[in-house]
Amino acid sequence: MTDRHPAPNDPRTLGSTDMQTPPMILGGNVFGWTADEPTSFAILDRFVERGGTMIDTADGYSAWVPGHQGGESEALIGRWLKQSGKRDKVLIATKVGMLPGEGGTGLAPARIAAAARASLDRLGIDRIDLYYAHQDDPEVPQAEVLAAFGELIDAGLVREIGASNFGAMRLKSALDLAREQGLPHYRVLQPEYNLVSRHKFEGELQNLCVEHNIGVAPYYGLASGFLTGKYRKPEDFGQSVRGGGMAKLLEGKGAEVLSVMDTIATETGATHAQIALAWLAAQEGVVAPIASATSVAQLDELIDGWELKLSEDQLEALNEARV
Predict the structure, then answer these.
(1) Cα 215 vs. chain centroid, distance in angstroms?
(2) How far apart are CA 71 and CA 78, in angstroms?
(3) pLDDT tens for residues 97-113?
(4) Taking the CB of residue 181, how many other CB atoms lie within 10 A of it?
(5) Do 98 and 58 meet the contact criterion of CB atoms below 8 Å apart?
(6) Which distant-in-sequence residues (6+ apart) come within 8 Å of 296 by Cβ?
(7) How far is 240 from 223, CA to CA, in rounded Å?
(8) 188: helix, coil or strand?
(9) Could you tell me the end-to-end alpha-carbon distance of the chain, in angstroms, rounded to an integer?
């Protein structure tokens, strides 16, 4: 566990890559969904202005919205890059593996190739800085998946690759194959991980990432807004389109986690969102959690917390209030 949180001028390196980021990556899942284009542009501008470097999206964002087909977030980011001229100030991470299309489904090599080019076109860029396998695909041999990513790297279309939603066993086998066959290595892992969802990462997977210097960039760092503290009772669930999923988080020890956060908020003056991300950034192996914002004010709140340092007692209290 680290005893210090980097400030924006003290960036963290993503594993064994040469890419650096402050202790937060900007999530693009809301762009074109709960944040319209003018708002999204303003959020992106402010993120760069305040020292942010990496923007995370996926070809599947936001296919779940009625009338959308996927690629909306990438296309919006592409329009912002063109209008702002800030391509050289940001790192772009996107993903393949959940949106079917040309070349098939999942991580079929033909699908990876076609999806990468489609993402590049929507983003209006020449190279993806970090390209994730959005989820594991047990139907395709891992050597074929890595070889397909390798072709994109060799062609200069992708800089580094990462894995999202992989279990420890499959990530380890991919790393072993890469070493044995001279294939590209996954350098970054994007797991679901936050104060109320810890079992998918802690333990074997976390240890594997630390051992192999795989940078960890967790998603759902705020548990879809639950860890902001605004969902305390059923009457609160209507505050957003994500409110319906909050009931299960209040069960078990969810309320206890919020209670501990209430105490720390009083002690530090920090908001619950800032505390949630500071806890994540202090966990072993974690480089920078991913968090999204639907307003500039929300983004400013998150960035204001980049220098928040939780005490060992505060970190331990949060650890003990585990779900």
Answers:
(1) 11
(2) 10
(3) 999 999 999 999 999 99
(4) 12
(5) yes
(6) 39, 42, 43, 46
(7) 13
(8) strand
(9) 20
